[in-house]
UniProtKB/TrEMBL annotation:
Accessory subunit of the mitochondrial membrane respiratory chain NADH dehydrogenase (Complex I), that is believed not to be involved in catalysis. Complex I functions in the transfer of electrons from NADH to the respiratory chain. The immediate electron acceptor for the enzyme is believed to be ubiquinone. Keywords: Coiled coil, Disulfide bond, Electron transport, Membrane, Mitochondrion, Mitochondrion inner membrane, Respiratory chain, Transport. The lineage of its organism: Eukaryota, Metazoa, Spiralia, Lophotrochozoa, Mollusca. It is a peripheral membrane protein. Belongs to the complex I NDUFB7 subunit family. It comes from Pomacea canaliculata. It is found in: Mitochondrion inner membrane; Mitochondrion intermembrane space. GO terms for cellular component: mitochondrial inner membrane; mitochondrial intermembrane space. This is NADH dehydrogenase [ubiquinone] 1 beta subcomplex subunit 7. It comes from the Eukaryota.
């Protein structure tokens, strides 16, 4: 509710558009650069494993590891593959946190740009 109020009522001009990529340079504020996020699995591997589209994100490597364990440990999946599932779950949580931080960063940079523009207009 709070985000909807911010995005549509109080600050629609500085709310990030979640359907489009960020508008600011991703390296802005990172003098040493950022770690690039990569996926080790190839598209062919994902197709062979029949990984659903909603699972094909940055955590797909952990999901494939879980699927391999599940295949080997059947029918004792729950007790044998708990660690693999936990790794996948932690990755999903960290990805969620990173996306929320990126949203907040975009919002703050938009507010900063708005303040700078306001100050620039006042000086003229």
């Amino acid at each position: 509710m709070g985000n909807m109020m911010y995005a549509y009522v109080t600050h629609p001009d500085t709310a990030p558009d979640i359907k489009n990529p960020p508008t600011f340079n991703p390296l802005l504020g990172f003098p040493n650069g950022r770690k690039e996020r990569t996926i080790e699995a190839t598209r062919e591997e994902l197709d062979r494993a029949a990984v659903p589209l909603d699972k094909r994100d940055y955590c797909v490597d952990f999901y494939l590891k879980y699927l391999r364990c599940r295949e080997q440990a059947f029918p004792f999946v729950k007790s044998s593959c708990h660690h693999e599932w936990h790794e996948y779950d932690v990755c999903q949580y960290e990805d969620f946190v990173l996306r929320m931080k990126e949203y907040e960063r975009e919002k703050r940079l938009k507010e900063r740009a708005k303040r700078i523009e306001k100050r620039r207009k006042q000086k003229m």
